[in-house]
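Page header: ASSEMBLY MODEL / two components / 844 residues total.
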Amino acid sequence: MTTVASAASGAIGTAPAPVAWRHRHLIDLDVVTWPEIQLIMRTTDEMKGILARPIHKVPALNGRRVTTLFYEASTRTRVSFETAARNLSADVVSVATATSSVTKGESLVDTVRTLEALGAEILVMRHSVSGAPYLAADVFSGHVLNGGDGWHAHPTQALLDLYTMREHLPGGDLRGRKVAIVGDILHSRVARSNIWSLTAAGADLWLCGPATLLRGMDRWAAAWAGGAIPGHGRFNVTSDIEAALRDADVVMGLRIQRERMQGGLLPSLREYAARFQLNAERVSLARPDAIVMHPGPMNEGVEIAPDVAISGRSVITDQVANGVAVRMALLYLLAGAHEAAHEAAHAEVAR
Amino acid sequence: MSAPTGGFRPGAAGPRVGDTVERFELEKAWLVDPVSGREGPGEIVVTDGVLESVVWLEGDEAAGVTDGGVVVAPGFFDLHAHFREPGFEDAETIATGSAAAAHGGYTTVALMPNTQPALDEPGALERIRAAARTSGSPVEVLAYGAVSAGRAGEQLSAMGELADAGVLGYSDDGAPVRTAKLMRSALVYAGMLGLPVVDHAEDAELTAGAEAHEGYVASVMGLAGWPIAGEANAVARDLAVLADALGDQPAARLHLTHVSTAAALELVRRAKKAGLPVTCDVTPHHLALTDEWIAGARRWAWEAIDTGGRPLDPWADGVLTAPPYNTSLRVNPPLRTAADAAACLAALLDGTADAVATDHAPHTVVDKEVEFGRAANGISGIETALGVLLALVDAGRLPLVRAIATLTTGPAKVAAGWPNLVGSPAARPRGLTESSPADLVVFDRSDRWQVTPESLRSKGKNSPLIGRELPGRVLLTIAAGRLAYEDPLAGDD
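Prediction written out in full:
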């Protein structure tokens, strides 16, 4: 049996190993080892089992206080977290910054201290500035669960993506499976978190988009090309959409935002669609049993053709459903870490 | 330890900051005189504020005195600091900045004009001088005037009146001189007045929204990139405009401050070779820190590079020990790669860079305890510059006498190249010269000190070196014959 130590120090995508959750926060997947990701996947399996019951509510987090603090507009992520928390019987407080003291200029630090004084134990946070959850974690005595920060990280999305891929791949094994992520990689926290999780899973990861929206990613790929990072494999970066999609097992589209034209990064949405849209013809380059994914919200007709989005290959609604289960698993693990290893967890640096 | 001896004892009866140093003797210390390039065992005596004697010891008398203990050097000259007064006194004042400077071994500082209001007319300079006088500190406070009125990048400031009032030169620092056209006018007009234009070289269009140096670290951390071209393009513009302006005004002078990239330094190197009257400085933080610190690494720049000159990978090396996105590391220009830091050092060693300047930029907690991308740019660095340079010396990367020269004769020579300052006190040579007013710093290389919020005299606690030990505790700083700083424990043995 693989030990935690050997799996963490080099092996990629190997078999499950006994491991306990040791993180006080979940902000980025860079510090989460493959055995820990497997623990999250197994815990998600259990949560899926709960969701399959007629009454999918358990008392696991009864009386625990979960606060969602969203500095950016979001429907699916916030509702997904709040549904997950309620399924575990947690008390949920939802803070929308548009109607809070934030509009009066209150700083993030003061807001977090206030929410803590009001009883928040687990803070689910979305913010437009990369790294903001670390600032919150620095002043918060509870747990911070990142719901997306700037261009940096969206760990629960990457974990639900991984879970969904495993559901649809034989044996649930990503090793050697080709995953193509297509779109605005530069500005994507989803892509960044997927780099950490999928290179840990041993996938053959390809990032694809117009060169202006891949900026800097080639340097990252080059740095990892030699297998330099313990526990993570290499990945590919290309603007060749056909090379990225050919024989892929998983095809994922990312949202293209209109601001990118104003920033001079793209000539037009029409030109993007002509060259990079995930349409039926392009997706046919992938394996016949390939799945199509998208983290949402979609611009149908831009980065993905409507018929592809609703085709039999599409698992986009599965992603949404799995999102609740993954978030239940993470809330459960973080809360458990609080109970089981309170002192040790509090000694951990907010990384 | 050969501690300073003589007229200094702590306590109520002891001399206070600002008092003329009546008598101070130091036996068996390591003297560094960057004017002559000489260093070695020696003794000094200060009487009534004058450096009465400098004796170089030889033979048995010199036995046991090494360059690893107490060192005496001329007082340091900072070409680039922000003391925030008037307008931002909650971040720093002339008084607290002067105290911080003296704690760092500095006896002369040149302040940037990005105050509120900007130093764009002579009355503002008078206010700064008055604040320096009432501070009681003997640290010499010089100031640059703004290039443009209100630093708005439109019209020239009251340049002539500012020159008459005694500014050191002109800068819109905090921002670049906005347009090439304005730069050309500024160089020609300032040249007529015998003074330089000091530019913060940044192509603001290329760097709009930037959060960190564009590269591997920024890519992984999802930070908007500040590209190398943002600096190189601006330096190329300034050099081209300078070459042009010299046709109209041969006394035009350009100083580029806090140059941070290998590419821009190479442009300066070539311009100097071609004979253009350009000088430049580099900062301690760009010499010693790199962008991987933002990810949580805490190794010096020279430890983060392989023998081929390529930066190492902090994720691969498992050196991420500190919380990421520490806003003390947000600075403009941003911390670069280890290769750029090595280029800054190489530029100092080959003379491309003339001096080390701190760009001391204190900020309040309110402006720094925010999201990384919203934090104010700047590092509080005037008290840690010596320690950072001594770390380079300890690592064998920089000879001690060269380290001292970058803080003393280097800046003095830059100022001496500005026509209106020839013969002015600001451009004095900065050696250990007998019979001149005592202007010196005494520090102990064997005594490390911990950087803490409490240990910094600056109001700005925004130092990424907080929590770290630095070599070279400053024991005593004498500015123009008067006590500027004395270590609380000095002489207490």
